[in-house]
Amino acid sequence: MNIKVAIADDQKLFRKGMAALISSFEHMDLLFEAENGRELLDFCTSEPVKPDVIVLDLSMPILNGLETLKILKQDFQSIRVIILTIHEAENFVLSTIQAGANGYLAKNAEPEEVEIAIREVFKNDFYFTMAMLQLMRKGLVKKTQSIVLENENKLTKREQEVLILICKQHSSAEIAEKMFLSNRTVEGHRNNLLLKTGSRNTAGLVVYALKHKIIDLN
Question: Do 107 and 27 sit in the same domain of this protein?
Answer without folding.
Answer: yes
